[in-house]
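Appendix B. Chain record.
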Amino acid sequence: PAAAMTLANRLAELLLEIDENAMYAAELKDTLRTCLAEEGVPYRQTVKAACSSPYILHMTLPPYQGAILTRALHAHEISVAPGSACESEGSGSPALRAMGCPADETYCALRVSTWADNTVEEMRIFSRALAECIRKY
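Structure tokens predicted for this chain:
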């Protein structure tokens, strides 16, 4: 019972912060899109901002493969995910194909997730690192 009460109390605290966290995440996502454009990163957002989570920017970067970019970004100590949540390599993402993404672009996706402890500076660092990885691709 004590653990359940502690968990319930912490959940209640987090729920009070949910709107503030979502607004901050949306600001980070807007900053990230601006920084990517400033760095000349040729990305396509797969889902309109108004229809997507404020915490996730999902994009394609044709002709660059998301799995290769993910490994290249790891050298910069940046962790992102390739593809979509269901699959990134192999036969490509069925979710992206269902959304109308051309089959050859289902391999070119990246998911960038943020949380309340991420910063605007981290969005700039990520954008610069991604631009560098694309130049070296």
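Further analysis of this model is presented in Appendix C.
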